[in-house]
Amino acid sequence: MRKRTRILSVLLCTAMTAALAGCGGKSGGDAKKDEKGSDGKIKLTFSTSVYVEEPHQKAIDALLAAYNEKNPNVTIEILGAGYDGYWDNITTEILANNESDMIQVYPENISTYQAIREGGTFLDLSEYMDDGLKEKLVGQDMCQVDGETLAISSYAWGTTGIFYRKSLLKEAGVDPESIHTQEDFREACAKFGGGGKYATGVVSGTHAFTVSEWSRLIARPVSGGLYFPNGESGPYTAENVNVNSPENVWAAQWWQDFLLKDKAAKLVPDKKDTREMFWNGEIPFCMDGPWFVGMSKERDEALMGDIGIMPQFDIVYEGETYRPNPTNYPLVTMISKNCAHPDEAYAFLEWMTTDEAQAIIADCGMIPSNTDYSTSDEYIENHELEYAIVDYMQNNYEELVADPNIAQLGEISQIMLDAAQKMFSEQAADVKTEMDNAQKQIEEVMSRE
Known about the structure:
This protein is α/β, with parallel strands linked by helices. 42% of the residues lie in helices and 12% in strands. The chain has 19 helices and 15 strands. Helix 8 (209-223) crosses helix 10 and helix 18 packs antiparallel against helix 19 (431-447).
């Protein structure tokens, strides 16, 4: 999903250059002048961070071809950049009033970009969407900001499970069906550690995974929220910050012990290192999402018979059992207030929710957003491992918890990343001290006017 890189042939040199050349926005948030090509067709631009990844490029190209066949009067140009540079580009473009007509992000990013422009950057889609459609789209409830529907979840989503190598578990006498709690998982991992060997890989460094892997597996299930309690819900105030709650401190200590005392996981700088170790048979476990299925097939089709998947385990804390609530990763799309053709833009995004389009999207490696399709016999038959994650979401997991959709997210995430780097590295900083420090810093951020 995030982070395989390939240069796409049709990508312009930079997103900023592309936006300046193609959007022609006016200042003050006014709609752009009518954009039509010399052939009289309506021209729309669509920015996404995932088009540099081959499975997404293939799916998006197929979507455009199918849509253009039905709507020959509309031309849609794909713009964007790789994941690391994409987000700064969006900021630059919005500040210059040259953003794309349609911008694809994750829900937790909506508020940040909406707040850049006074009066809001994006259209309220409430008047376009009916309630029946909203109920079918995974992650659509995360697109609400201050009572407005600022995006549509019409592409695809993913969340995580734990992939395992069947042969390695069998050799070690580990039954994956017996792994129900974090301590079951810890015991299973102990059979693979020692002598420079590990049970899994864990990202430790500047990447956001340094926080999110620990948060998804251990912290949020027991605390309800790393930043704010009750599923990262408001009020988003200094008084409601949840970072150094007893549950989060306990979870951080458990994770530090798992990494540095048990030495169950190899600390790696990037998720790709964990994946390589898994594919090479060096580790038996890899926490990942549905996109990992396609990645594994691309790596070596012969591996697929040796790969299984299980849900994330429950967390037992002070005698209580808490079910997993891993982050949901839907890609959602907003329409700029500068878009000269919002009706046509929305028509395309809504068409993406149809069975015809969702069948095309299924090949991107994520799970199509419309639950009518992702639970259909056709999808289950053709995407067995990916569908297991749909099943986990419905039967094994609590409501999935994402980062809070607030403008301060970037700043508070960096504070938490700084703390995690100290706690979950060989530095092994004192957990309570670092969580208290992070709490104080985030309170200060949330206290600003």
